[in-house]
Amino acid sequence: MRMRAAVLEEFGQPLVVQELDLAEPAAGEVLLRLVACGVCHTDMYTASGVDPSGYAPTVLGHEGAGVVEAVGEGVGSLAVGDHVVTLFSPQCRECVHCLSPKTNICLAIRDQQGKGYLPDGTTRLSRDGEPIRHFMGTSTFAEYTVMPEIALAKVSPEAPLDRACLFACGLSTGLGAAMFTAKVEAGSTCVVFGAGMVGLGAVAGCRLQGAERIVCVDLSDERLEMARHQGATDTLVGGVGGDGVVQAILDMTGGFGADYTIEATGNVAVMRQAVESARMGWGLATMCGVAGKGETLDIVPRLLITGRRVAGSSFGGVKGRDQVPQLVQRYLDGDIDVDAFLSHRITLDEVNTGFELMEAQDGIRSVIDFG
Amino acid sequence: MRMRAAVLEEFGQPLVVQELDLAEPAAGEVLLRLVACGVCHTDMYTASGVDPSGYAPTVLGHEGAGVVEAVGEGVGSLAVGDHVVTLFSPQCRECVHCLSPKTNICLAIRDQQGKGYLPDGTTRLSRDGEPIRHFMGTSTFAEYTVMPEIALAKVSPEAPLDRACLFACGLSTGLGAAMFTAKVEAGSTCVVFGAGMVGLGAVAGCRLQGAERIVCVDLSDERLEMARHQGATDTLVGGVGGDGVVQAILDMTGGFGADYTIEATGNVAVMRQAVESARMGWGLATMCGVAGKGETLDIVPRLLITGRRVAGSSFGGVKGRDQVPQLVQRYLDGDIDVDAFLSHRITLDEVNTGFELMEAQDGIRSVIDFG
């Protein structure tokens, strides 16, 4: 079939919306009609050319939600008409990782996905007979996409897809960092660094876990106001220079530090603050952000010896097919105000505007509405 | 009373054995006659003057075991004649840390102990009427010492005290890192970096937890042989240069890394190896060693995001009064070969020889026998 998609033709250049060919879903694959797709930092990161594993041409986009249009041979868990959220982090339910409760990083299709191919090592995308590689196994800046069944989470048809799509990446990453990676305990004190999509999700996750005190740190008063709306009990305007933020958190916690700190900026200096403001004895610092190439998080070992722990979270530790539907249900139950994150609605043709808004830190999420 | 003790008079100089005055135990304190005391790196570290929190004069020593000679007012858990192991890491059983299962770092007497005083802010040690400060709350390079009741673990009288003393620091630190901090799971793959007292204890701890594979890394073939004796299933001769050790461990584990890595060297380059050889998805890297001042453990954040965790362990996470007696019992039950660690017996007058043997990496532990 023919369909319109936003193609990264050249690093550092605007995406070009154009018609491409999309082949039928093969065995174990699903044809998905996109209804909505968030514009995420990772798309912009790859488009910029900074990501060393990036390639072009490709169809970007990975925060999608839509409706199943057709299923390939052997697809048993999805049927035409199902509402689904795309998973760049799939869940095969069979590999050693999927069978472990300790990780959500499925190994099934990891290698091919990283190279831009579907599990069988080929693409469904092409232009004038030339294959075009997929991106993150999703390529959802497009009217349609073909994805493996194991990379789609079936969600309640009651969930508006322009909200559900945020669970495909940023929101689940934040919620899950608190709920599944850190496993925040009720009554605890938490600090979230960064009040973008991931950080705000983490604030909401801490609240859902019953945290007693949730401190959010960001440079923007406007975003800190959003953090308060999501459940932050305290806010701090703080940057990366000096010890100000760490000292402020120590002062707020009797000199001990917070039970849980969650970093959602990708800045290694902020990651260090997250470690240094975690509580002596048992504080857990969880890193969500993607750092620049070659950058390191430098930790004074004494902080570890005296009881702090450091973890990282990919897609919030969320096992996508099992837990994205549960998170969406919590939204439907009124536990999470997702509307507050949806700041701009754009068309596929305006996808580059989505990048511009993000760069200007205008709003939290632009969502492409496929109409 | 008068008694003989090894005094650190001046940093970088040999300890001077001499007679000192020791006052009666005050309320909550115990007079202890030392029977044996191990010579540990921390004593040598402080004697060298490198430790920024060090002071002189003081009586060093913290790996002691002996017999209760007298108890002060209100001491209820110990009686004259009890066999005890000294605890530089006390357990008051009342502070917020002691009441938590997550940490063994008791807060009760931390500040005074760090300054060289007993909990009431004074010393029992003196010379010609001048107070001499205690060291680590223990000062066990001495025929007698006065210590708080909460810093003594009552152990089985069946345990020879020249072995029991090793549980006062190094051995418990290693055993506990595997058993209580990392909580190594049965069937897992572990890597221990360093085969000194702590590393060998960690190897034994991994074995007691039922690890299937235990790889020990050290520079010395002789020590690796000892590691095999304690339960290592594989050994690697490895230093800090290059990626050789990390790659070897990845090769041994199907490219994934080990479920648990334990660092027992204090070298930040080795700490980094411990992080990098921990398993993707859920590998836990536990740091036991004390790094040099100003040094940092530098971690590539991607390693965290893809599921590795980093922890630190102080005194092996052992809650001393509760768990040291249990560990000593496991020795008596034949689960831990403690004899293998006791490489030299020396007298108090030979304490500087103990430092020389350590510096020459001759044997694992010199133990002062007070006769």
Low-confidence regions of chain A: none
Helix content of chain A: 25-40%
Q: Give the strand content of chain A.
A: 25-35%
What is the distance, rounded to the nearest whole angstrom, between the alpha carbons of the first and last residues of chain A?
19 Å
Question: Short summary of the structure?
Answer:
The structure is a homodimer of 371-residue chains. Chain A contains eleven helices and 19 strands. In chain A, the strands form three sheets. In chain A, strands 3, 5, 6, 9, 10, 18 and 19 form a seven-stranded mixed sheet that branches. The first copy, chain A, has a six-stranded parallel sheet with strand order 13-12-11-14-15-17, sandwiched between helices. In chain A, strands 4-1-2-7-8 form a five-stranded antiparallel sheet, with no helix packed on it.
Fold and architecture overview:
2 copies of one chain form a homodimer. The first copy, chain A, is 26% helix and 25% strand. The first copy, chain A, is built from 11 helices and 19 strands. Chain A has helices spanning 41-48, 110-115, 161-164, 170-181, 197-208, 221-230, 244-252, 268-276, 301-305, 320-332, 351-359, and strands at 2-8, 16-22, 29-38, 58-59, 63-71, 83-86, 125-127, 130-132, 144-148, 152-154, 189-193, 213-218, 234-237, 260-263, 284-287, 297-299, 309-312, 342-346, 365-369. In chain A, a hairpin with a 7-residue loop joins strand 1 (2-8) and strand 2. In chain A, helix 4 packs parallel to helix 5. The mean pLDDT of chain A is 96. Strand 16 of chain A pairs antiparallel with strand 16 of chain B.
